[in-house]
């Protein structure tokens, strides 16, 4: 049986969105799922999409809305694996939390079309190339925005998706009911880590929290996240450090301490290993842009 990875996305506490442009040689991420919703705009690329229980070709201009915990992956055509630098895989990816505007979407009539859209997305939704020129333009524009402007554009994207008649569900109606995942325990573990990753958390403590022995927990955690417990915590701390380094009034030694590193040298070593730069170089590069 093919392993399905439960990807844990590190969406910032300061925003419910993770929006980025992508530019790859080819898609590489294996079959996976995550609790967040995902929008994928394929500006350049051809290949095959595996979403739920559906396998279909995709092409440039396609737009996908993938619901919470729906297994998926994209496989680029063989020609993208031949080292031709002229062929690129480009587009926009948006991840957003399933709790995003939950109360408004589920209680106010203004959002009924968006509520129905998100419900449909549990089977995956496909917008064919040319189905909405406005939607395509919004998806090209949103990575260039930030703050409230990005949130406003995102709501406009959901509105346009919900009002576009030319959309199709991807998986068959029986798929959602037949697919079960052990998400409750891992969600509880990740929630605990989100609140405590800047302090020392021993393997014994987190295994006890999950009601497992340490050996079983290590296997379980890696099977669900694709990372060891140690590396997952390290990635969270480095991600937090990257944000703090954009604040000029916080010293690097203080950032090291705030992020849970025991010594400055340990922080510098791991930061460079993960980013390719020592913290001071990273700050200089980011603030000069």
Automatic annotation (TrEMBL):
<dbReference type="InterPro" id="IPR003313">
    <property type="entry name" value="AraC-bd"/>
</dbReference>
<dbReference type="Pfam" id="PF12833">
    <property type="entry name" value="HTH_18"/>
</dbReference>
<feature type="domain" description="HTH araC/xylS-type">
    <location>
        <begin position="187"/>
        <end position="285"/>
    </location>
</feature>
<dbReference type="InterPro" id="IPR018060">
    <property type="entry name" value="HTH_AraC"/>
</dbReference>
<dbReference type="GO" id="GO:0043565">
    <property type="term" value="F:sequence-specific DNA binding"/>
</dbReference>
<dbReference type="InterPro" id="IPR020449">
    <property type="entry name" value="Tscrpt_reg_AraC-type_HTH"/>
</dbReference>
<dbReference type="InterPro" id="IPR011051">
    <property type="entry name" value="RmlC_Cupin_sf"/>
</dbReference>
<dbReference type="GO" id="GO:0003700">
    <property type="term" value="F:DNA-binding transcription factor activity"/>
</dbReference>
<dbReference type="Pfam" id="PF02311">
    <property type="entry name" value="AraC_binding"/>
</dbReference>
<keyword id="KW-0804">Transcription</keyword>
<dbReference type="InterPro" id="IPR009057">
    <property type="entry name" value="Homeodomain-like_sf"/>
</dbReference>
<protein>
    <submittedName>
        <fullName>AraC family transcriptional regulator</fullName>
    </submittedName>
</protein>
<dbReference type="InterPro" id="IPR014710">
    <property type="entry name" value="RmlC-like_jellyroll"/>
</dbReference>
<keyword id="KW-0238">DNA-binding</keyword>
<keyword id="KW-0805">Transcription regulation</keyword>
